[in-house]
Target: Nitrilase/cyanide hydratase and apolipoprotein N-acyltransferase
Amino acid sequence: MSRFVNVALGQLGPIQRTDSRQQVVSRLCALMREAHALGAHLIVFPELALTTFFPRWYIEDEEDINSFFEREMPSAATQPLFDLARELGMGFYLGYAELAQEQGKAVRYNTSIIVNRQGEIIGKYRKVHLPGHAEHEPWRRFQHLEKRYFTPGNHFGVTPAFGGIFGMAICNDRRWAETYRAMGLQGVEMVLIGYNTPVHNAPAPQHDDLSLFQNQLSMQAGAYQNGTWVVGVAKAGLEEGVDSIGGSCIVAPSGEVVARCITKGDEVAIARCDLDFCAIYKRTTFNFDLHRRPEAYGLLVERKGETLAADGTAVGVLNAP
Ligand code: CDV
Model:
């Protein structure tokens, strides 16, 4: 049996601060039309795809900060995306900054949604792993203030979509094994990820030359170790003086890259992905029920020379002579 989903990478080049939502949405619509012409059922856009990557700036004025956030989805500015999805019969994944109201208080999240082929939102995810820092650090060439501007999400769920089981993650999430495993344990068959990754890593500049390699490494490992497709999409190129990696790609459950963007601008690349290709990995090498040893993965603590599992049961002797 085969369950094919034709998936398009909707990579974006830079978005400058002065670019309006309307200008960005028309670029996204152009990518969607191109992907549709190539036979796509689903297009994946990057993290914070509606604006420039504003956490690079220390901004004090609350209204200035809020100008990068969406109070509703769809909004007047983003409605054309939903209309086009319905017209073309094509779904999309979109990252954006969300200003939510919770118990009468405004809360900011780094969010993504899955929209189905009828143009309806069927899943929402709020970024769990927020990188960077919360206070202004003037020694950096540019800031990475996600910890200041966003509240972390608290859940990796999965959504039935496009005939399979879909998951979402955002940028830094892709570097964490737990991201994929949390969804792998729920049977995920395709994980959609958007990212903004500057080439320069201020706290560890010696890693700058490895940024593209480590991007792909994380997604290939996550795909293979959980028997799932992984689709990673960049906002790339020189944005407000900061150079970000491209390297958007689609990774099969085998860990192989089956499609890849080659520029750092707006670009579509497509792959025909068989969701049934996950099963052979989930049934054999990564059959979790058969081979995982959760009892060995708990937090280990030492008590009188014994090693204890998190529930207090003795599982061995630490530092045995
Ligand atoms: N937007 C991100 O989450 N970017 C991080 C950077 C700070 C390294 C990333 O993991 O790509």
Observations:
- Residues 315-321 have pLDDT under 50 and may be disordered.
- Residues 21-37 form the longest helix (17 residues).
- The pocket of 3-methyl-2-ureido-butyric acid is lined by residues 47, 131-132, 144, 171-172, 175, 195-197, 201 (CB under 6 Å).
- The chain has nine helices and 17 strands.
